[in-house]
Amino acid sequence: MYEPEVVLETHNLNKDYRRTRALSDINIALDRGRIYGLVGQNGAGKTTLMRIIAGLSQPTQGSITLFGASSQPSLVRARRRLGAIIETPALYPDLSAAQNLEIERLIRGVADRSRVKRLLQQVGLDGTGRKRVRDFSLGMRQRLAIAVALLADPALLLLDEPINGLDPMGIIQVRQLLTTLAHEHGCTILISSHILSELDQLADEYLFVSDGRIIKQLTAAELSTQHDNLEGYFLELLKEGTPQ
Fold first, then answer.
1. What pLDDT shows up at residue 244?
2. What does the DSSP assignment read for the chain?
């Protein structure tokens, strides 16, 4: 286990789209080597939060501290230690999985050429050969997107619905991979999924989001001692409808 070390903090984060507030006063702190499940309905603000952390969108108000960096130039450098799958992954459809990873390796300046082969093995795509990505199933594309996100050996991983389209074996493989990355290599993972039963087996801690607000945060241990399962507790929170 790792000593507690905060890798990401958000400070009164707000995001407005015209007259709609997508995020409201988000204050979170993520520690090294833990898996955080981001739980909320569609439109609750989960993807918006991840986009802001990744630098794909700017907050209307508030700030972020990432690996101790808070100024804009230092945040740009700090985000080199971040990997992400947010919304539809950008892949090269006419190239193979290995060719996609090799291009990304060169773009990101990853010196270790053998990393491409290792990642293909880790996500179960080492047998795809020259098959083009355009001929991949949705689950295969998701596996490749995960490999791309892991290419630069990130210290913080943002995953928005990463198991979408995966078959049961693929879900198990991804679960084992993410658990190893967090608990053995100290990678911090923030993951959202509509498959709450899977998050229930994966997360160390949960952040519950509703209408752009964090309405509850609790550890997996707290959840297991107080409630039967994640899905049931989430439905209870929505029914109550009041921030806690």
1. 44
2. -----EEEEEEEEEEEETTEEEEEEE--EEETT-EEEEE--TTSSHHHHHHHHHTSS--SEEEEEETTB-SHHHHHHHGGGEEEE-SS----TTSBHHHHHHHHHHHHT---THHHHHHHHHTT-TT-TT-BGGGS-HHHHHHHHHHHHHTT--SEEEEESTTTT--HHHHHHHHHHHHHHHHHH--EEEEE-S-HHHHHHH-SEEEEEETTEEEEEEEHHHHHHH-S-HHHHHHHHHHH----
User: For residue 187, which of 207, 158, 222 has the smallest C-alpha distance?
Assistant: 158
Q: What's residue 241's pLDDT?
A: 61
Identify the CA nearest to 43 among candidates 230, 231, 210, 165: 210
pLDDT per residue over 116-131, tens digit each?
A: 999 999 999 999 999 9
User: What is the rounded distance in angstroms from the CA atom of residue 93 to the CA atom of residue 22?
Assistant: 33
193-207 pLDDT per residue, tens: 888 888 989 999 999
Enter the pTM of the model. 0.91
Question: Which residues of the chain fall below pLDDT 50?
Answer: 243-244
What are the φ/ψ torsions at residue 140 (nearest 5 degrees)?
-65, -40
Q: Could you give the CA distance from residue 46 to residue 211 in angstroms, rounded to a whole number?
A: 10
Instruction: Give the whole-angstrom CA distance, residue 151 versus residue 120.
Output: 10
